[in-house]
Amino acid sequence: MSEASHRAQPPRRDFFEKVTGSAEFISDVVVPGMLQGRILRSTIPHGRIRNVDVSAALALPGVEAVLTGEDIAGLNNHWGLFLNDRPVIAIDRVRYVGEPVAVVVAVDERTAEDALDLIDVDYETLPFVTDAVEAMAEDAPVLHEKSETLKDFYFKGEAKPVPGTNIFQKYEYAHGDVERAFADAGRVFEDTFSFPMIFHYAMEPHCVVASFADGGLTLWSCGQAPTAIQKVLSRVFDLPLAKIRIITPYVGGGFGGKASVKIDPLVAAAAWKVGRPVRICLSISESMLTCRRLSASITVRTGVRADGTILGKAVRVVMNGGAYADTGPAVAIKAANRAIGPYHVPNLKLEAYAVYTNTVPGAAFRSIGGPQAVWASESQMDIIAGALGIDPVELRYRNMLKPGETVRPDLRPIDVDMAEALGQASQAMSRLDAAGPDAGLMKGVAVGASDPGIMAVAAVLVRLKIDGSVLVISNSVEIGQGIREVLRTFAAELLNQPAEAVYVMTPDTALAPFDWGTGASRSSVMMGMAIEDAAIDIRRQLADMAAAAFGVAAETVSLCPGGIVAGDRQWPFAELLHAHYGIDSGEVIGIGRISPHSRDGRLMQAPLFWETAAGMCGVELDEETGEVRVRRYVSVADVGRVLNRASAEGQDEGAAIQGLGHALSEELVYEDGQPVNASMIDYHVPTIDEVPEDFLTVLIESGTGPGPGGARGMGEGAILPVAPAIANALASRHGIRIRDLPLTPERVWRALQEKKAKP
Amino acid sequence: MLPHRFQYHRPDNLEQVFELLDRYGDDVAPYAGGTELLLALKARVLRYEHLVDLKRVPGLKGVCESDGQIVIGALSSHFSLATDPIVKRLVPAYAALSDNIANIRVRVSGTIGGNLCFAEPHADPPAMLAALGASLTLRGRDGQRRVAMADFIEGEFTTVRGPAEVLTEVRIPAPAASARYAYCSFGHLERPAVGIAAGYCPERGTPHYRIWAGAIAGRPAQLRSVEDALEGVPPDKLGDVLAEAASAAAQELPAHDDLQGSADYKRHLAAVLTRRAVEQAAGLQPRRKAA
């Protein structure tokens, strides 16, 4: 390991700002002349809009404009990432409860909200469908009559919709001959699991400020992918990319709910209509109507020999993608891949569908498709273990891939030692048990392996000033994960400067180079590599200057804190730059660019690295109420290298606790086409009271990642094993196998009742 | 979301409160802690043109003992009751209940009076106060009246409080030294799905029990059949009598399917919690931390 990671780390700079309240979040942004927008949302799941009467709303003092579908006829009024399926605002049809139908722009939020009550919408209702399997039926109402796919638009590849149906993505993959493997296998297990819609619950809801000026458009956005927003807006408003500027202050959490593009086109359209800057800040309840995790039904067939060796596996995933595709096509593919597990599967067949329904659009969410897939595959591993009389951990070891072996021959061989991670989890749980023995706890285990969908497209500017201060300019969004501190750490380390001298700028597409976005566990690795290259660029420039100014051999020049060193001679930056520029002022600009061709093409193969996790839980069950409490939890991940221990452990813990909510209580419920619990009053995310008393994160520093010092991405793995580990614990002790999430007390109690009824 | 505009009044005494309530009729609501009311206004489920803040009215906060009763000012916060020395000494189970309501922010601003008058069915205090035999003092321009807690809540979000009346105090008869109470509630969302309050009140050597079910229906319900079945049964003999009576009574409780659970599950919970609450009150098991 590099020494840098063992140096005492200064506290994260954003922590100080956040704790003292000086940090500017997106919802704090104020632009001169700014108006406030509020959104009128569809109250019906599916219907035609006959008429929207906004006259009374416009007559309310303080209301400046009302945007409706009629206004956007002259724009390129549909957008999307894979399919050009989403109107900027509902035009003549609504497809889910919560879809924006009108935006009132007024002098303040309350006036805008009051005006919403004055808008009269005349709907003609249409048949609706909220269940994905029902939406695939022949007589199901079709949500989108035509589909326009966008190839390589922002994600590599193209969705494969089935024309005339609600299926907007159909994905298939196979290697070997799975049916023959099943014929050869001693046992074939078939199990179907369901996973609900889950809300991201970022603490800060979606918020955007849009302003048209000087022939261009500026947005202060909460988006995790500023350049994706820039691209979509460029299409919608027919503006050059160079005239669209996206600024991203601190964002109060995203988890994928702010990935790619969300409310940005709508807010921009409101500003375009009224001709003044407009801010729209949603409530949490509105964010719940903006996007959610894709729910799924997953059927896993696995053929094994009597000794537990997996001979073949067939996975069928049906995902409920909601009213618009968003990034659902990618989610479906990833769900299929992530159902394989870190196991040797010689014969494999994957089939995944993403389907339109009259529900809130599905979207990326921490490890896209991963928790859904791992819930199914890792629950089934314990079913197999139980049926064959093999210890569940032993069954996993028997099938586990060794580093360098492949999950799929077309994917990068697995680059972590999963057996070590599982072993570390067992050891850590033993340590917890030794410290506080509690024989009553049931134990469960699960592992997960995911293939981050990382586009190797990133760049950074690093500006070394004459006084030795350093400014890092990138589009990596600080969303709570600590990326600004990571960039600071890398820049300090790679330029050999004190961390205190390095500053990281707020992302601004007008200044920062193109970057694919903040998500998929990519920023530390991609921007880290870009900073590596920028540092090389800076060193080269300084060396050339020193060679010319001081007559030293360029290749002997290296950086030292505050200056350069060549042999036994040392110069402060000021002396070198003064000599070079002739004045005591100036800077050196380093550029780091990463593309699929960087690093001799090694970044081309997917995934860039494997993100994995092993989880082990100690669970307590109240058999009378069905209440499950996780008392102990161990989370293990190989992160390559720990860049900031508090942040890294915090991300791992956060992912696991988010997974605990997925496991025990979270579910967006639909009845009669209506979301019935879309508020934080009726939708329960875990509180501190539900966090296990004993929680241990073990971070393995193998140094095997592609990032500087062997860093890998992290933060999305720990969410994977939680739900199946808990369900496996319940099965091991009580013989109940629950195949549907969440594991609510009632669901667990019913399983216990059924078990008692048929001994 | 933001509430509709409303006019905010902050009177200094009850006379002014009555005057405002009288003047604005259906357009006004008294405002105590706001933990229920403001949420409903923000969600635009409720709308009032006027709110009358009671927090400046003197004499509505605090706890005292008077004539064998614990007198609780209606504007006392749950937190203050959880930590009040009189409540902790005389009705420790009610202090414990108050300490477990919602979360610390709600406990600090939410008041017992607001909780009772809002009459959200998924609440903890009503069943407990009913079991304790509490009465409520309602004051209006023309005087005051006492209403038994058992009669105060009529159904979901409705009480017998008149539009121009203010709930000023809750009176709990100080339990006999030998009496013990317990409260057990359960729910996996923010609010309790079912809560059971139980009292063990021996009189001259004969055990009596008081048992009330809350949260499961629109108003608290007395489980008389269980009380009767247990009448005179000493704690060490409760055994199967309690389990059977609790199950039978729970089956009769009005319950419906909702996000908190199916009706049959909630009835099952009522039976379990009844047994636990009675056993706790009778000293048969240590108090469990309510979920």
How would you explain this protein's 3D organization?
The complex is a heterodimer of chains A (759) and B (291). Chain A has a 7-stranded mixed sheet, with helices on both faces. With 759 residues, chain A is of the alpha+beta class. In chain A, 28% of the residues lie in helices and 26% in strands. The N and C termini of chain A lie far apart (55 Å). Chain B has 291 residues and is of the alpha+beta class. Chain B folds into 3 domains: 7-53, Uridine Diphospho-n-acetylenolpyruvylglucosamine Reductase, domain 2 (2-Layer Sandwich); 63-173, Uridine Diphospho-n-acetylenolpyruvylglucosamine Reductase, domain 3 (2-Layer Sandwich); 180-281, Enolase-like, domain 1. Helices cover 34% and strands 23% of the residues of chain B. Chain B has 12 helices and 14 strands. Chain B has helices at 14-24, 37-42, 78-83, 85-90, 92-99, 104-109, 112-118, 125-131, 149-152, 224-230, 239-251, 263-281, and strands at 7-9, 28-31, 50-53, 63-66, 69-73, 135-140, 143-148, 153-155, 158-159, 166-173, 180-186, 194-200, 209-214, 221-222. In chain B, helix 11 (239-251) runs antiparallel to helix 12 (263-281). Classes of the chains: A alpha+beta (759), B alpha+beta (291). At the A-B interface, helix 3 and helix 18 of A face helix 12 of B.
